[in-house]
C-alpha cells in the first residue's frame, strides 16, 4: 500500500472515531453580525465540527444593523464546548452587564480549548474576568479600555495567547477564524477554506487608523455622552470583578 493511501485511510479512521468538535457562538442583542458570521463562515467549514448559535432565549436575536439571527441552542442547555466565540458590536455594553452570559462564559472557560472574541467581544470576555494577564486585541476605538481589566492590549489584527484568541475590528473575525482553522486542522485545510471563500481583500479605502486620514479617524470618535456611558460600564464591570476577587490590582 502506498504511503498516500495509508494517510487517507488514517484520516478517515480518525474522522470517524473522533467526537465532533463543538463550537458555540454567543448571540446578544446589538451584536455586529460580521463579528459573528465572519468566523462562523470559516469554522463551519472545518471537518468533524458542529457549530451552535447560543442565546438566553429562542427568539431571533436582532443585530445592530437589523439582521436577525435565530439561536439553535439555549445557554442553559449547552454542555461543555471546545471553543466559545464572542462577537462584539454596540450591544457589547449590555452584554458586559449580563450576569447570565458572564456566568456562562466563566463556567465554560475551564474546559474550553479556546475562548475566541472578535472586535469588542473581547471586552465581554474581559468583563467576565477571563483576560487578566493575557495579550489580546479589539476594535481600535476600544483598545485603550483593556488594560483596566488586567489584560495586555496588542495592536494587531489577530492575537493568540495560550487559550485566548482575539481579533480586532469586524472584518478581522474572518482572519481570526482562518488562523484558528490552521491551528485546529492544519494550514492546508485553512488555505482551502480561504480559497473557497475567495477571501482576497482589496479595500478601496484605508481601513486602519494608522493609514486613514486624521479627519476620518476624528469623526469616528465616540461623542462625549457615549464615552461617559462606556467609562461607567467599564468601571462597574471592574468593580464587580474586584468584589469577586477576579481582578488583582496591578
Structure characterization notes:
This protein is of the alpha/beta class and 250 residues long. Helix content is 39%, strand content 16%. It contains nine helices and eleven strands. The strands form three sheets. The chain has a seven-stranded mixed beta sheet, sandwiched between helices. The protein has a two-stranded antiparallel ribbon with strand order 3-4. The chain has a two-stranded parallel sheet with strand order 8-9. Helix 2 runs parallel beside helix 6. The mean pLDDT is 93.
- Looking at the chains present, what oligomeric state does this protein adopt? single chain
Largest sheet: 7 strands, mixed
In angstroms, what is the radius of gyration?
19 Å
Reading the helices and strands in chain order gives HEHEEEEEHHEHEEEEHHHH
User: Helical residue percent?
Assistant: 25-40%
Quote the distance from N terminus to C terminus: 60 Å
Number of strands: 11
- Dominant shape: globular
Low-pLDDT runs: none
Hey, roughly how much beta strand do the residues contain? 15-25%
Helix and strand composition category: alpha/beta
Q: How many helix segments?
A: 9
Strand order of the largest sheet: 5-2-1-6-7-11-10
What's the mean pLDDT score?
93
Keywords:
alpha/beta, about 250 residues, single chain, 9 helices, about 15% strand, globular, seven-stranded mixed beta sheet, two-stranded antiparallel sheet
Offer a concise description of the structure.
The chain is an alpha/beta fold and 250 residues long.
Give the SSE layout.
Blueprint: H1 3-17, E1 21-26, H2 33-43, E2 49-55, E3 61-62, E4 68-69, E5 73-74, E6 83-86, H3 92-95, H4 99-108, E7 114-118, H5 121-127, E8 135-136, E9 152-153, E10 158-161, E11 164-167, H6 172-185, H7 187-197, H8 214-219, H9 224-243
Parallel strand pairs: 1-2, 1-6, 2-5, 6-7, 7-11, 8-9
Antiparallel strand pairs: 3-4, 10-11
Helix pairs in contact: 2-6, 6-7
Amino acid at each position: 500500500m502506498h504511503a498516500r493511501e495509508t494517510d487517507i485511510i488514517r484520516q478517515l479512521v480518525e474522522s470517524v472515531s473522533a467526537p465532533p468538535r463543538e463550537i458555540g457562538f454567543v448571540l446578544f442583542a446589538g451584536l455586529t453580525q460580521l463579528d459573528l458570521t465572519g468566523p462562523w463562515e470559516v469554522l463551519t467549514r472545518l471537518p468533524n465540527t458542529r457549530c451552535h448559535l447560543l442565546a438566553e432565549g429562542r427568539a431571533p436575536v436582532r443585530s445592530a444593523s437589523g439582521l436577525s439571527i435565530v439561536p439553535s441552542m439555549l445557554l442553559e442547555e449547552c454542555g461543555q464546548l471546545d471553543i466559545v466565540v464572542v462577537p462584539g458590536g454596540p450591544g457589547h455594553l449590555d452584554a458586559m452587564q449580563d450576569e447570565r452570559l458572564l456566568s456562562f462564559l466563566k463556567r465554560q472557560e475551564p474546559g474550553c480549548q479556546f475562548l475566541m472574541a472578535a472586535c469588542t467581544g473581547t471586552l465581554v470576555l474581559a468583563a467576565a474576568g477571563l483576560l487578566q494577564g493575557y495579550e489580546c486585541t479589539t476594535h481600535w476605538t476600544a483598545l485603550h479600555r483593556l488594560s483596566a481589566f488586567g489584560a495586555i492590549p496588542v495592536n494587531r489584527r489577530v492575537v493568540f495567547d495560550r487559550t485566548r484568541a482575539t481579533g480586532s475590528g469586524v472584518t478581522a473575525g474572518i482572519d481570526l477564524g482562518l488562523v484558528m482553522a490552521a491551528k485546529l486542522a492544519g494550514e492546508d485545510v485553512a488555505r482551502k477554506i480561504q480559497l473557497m471563500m475567495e477571501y482576497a481583500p482589496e479595500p478601496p479605502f484605508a481601513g486602519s487608523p494608522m493609514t486613514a486620514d486624521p479627519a476620518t479617524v476624528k469623526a469616528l470618535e465616540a461623542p462625549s455622552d457615549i464615552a461617559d456611558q462606556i467609562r461607567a460600564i467599564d468601571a462597574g464591570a471592574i468593580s464587580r470583578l474586584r468584589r469577586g476577587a477576579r481582578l488583582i490590582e496591578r
